[in-house]
Amino acid sequence: MKIPGPVAKRLALYHRCVTSMLSDGKDITSSHELGERLILKPSQIRKDLSYFGEFGKRGTGYDLQGLKSSLETVLSINKSWRVGIVGAGNIGMALANHREFFQEGYEVVALFDRNKS
């Protein structure tokens, strides 16, 4: 199934919002609440998520932990990615040593730079 580009971009926003809500101690949310936080129509959120199956229950809402897990599967961020960084200067080294980079599933396996030092 071909997913429209705008939908794919919004999925990352949904994941970020759901993660934030879980950090705030929430367990359940609605498309209305997600819409308010993301300045989107609840119907748009429901339509976007429907591309990937059923996530919520009418009248109950979305289980945030389940939705987060499903979004991570769809976005392929629930697995490790081996990456190489081109440019081992200040920015490259900062990325290679950035804790959240690793926490998001990126494993830096190589650094490349044209300078030999």
TrEMBL record:
<protein>
    <submittedName>
        <fullName>Redox-sensing transcriptional repressor Rex</fullName>
    </submittedName>
</protein>
<dbReference type="InterPro" id="IPR009718">
    <property type="entry name" value="Rex_DNA-bd_C_dom"/>
</dbReference>
<dbReference type="InterPro" id="IPR036388">
    <property type="entry name" value="WH-like_DNA-bd_sf"/>
</dbReference>
<dbReference type="GO" id="GO:0045892">
    <property type="term" value="P:negative regulation of DNA-templated transcription"/>
</dbReference>
<dbReference type="InterPro" id="IPR036390">
    <property type="entry name" value="WH_DNA-bd_sf"/>
</dbReference>
<dbReference type="GO" id="GO:0051775">
    <property type="term" value="P:response to redox state"/>
</dbReference>
<dbReference type="InterPro" id="IPR036291">
    <property type="entry name" value="NAD(P)-bd_dom_sf"/>
</dbReference>
<feature type="domain" description="Rex DNA-binding C-terminal">
    <location>
        <begin position="2"/>
        <end position="50"/>
    </location>
</feature>
<dbReference type="InterPro" id="IPR022876">
    <property type="entry name" value="Tscrpt_rep_Rex"/>
</dbReference>
<dbReference type="Pfam" id="PF06971">
    <property type="entry name" value="Put_DNA-bind_N"/>
</dbReference>
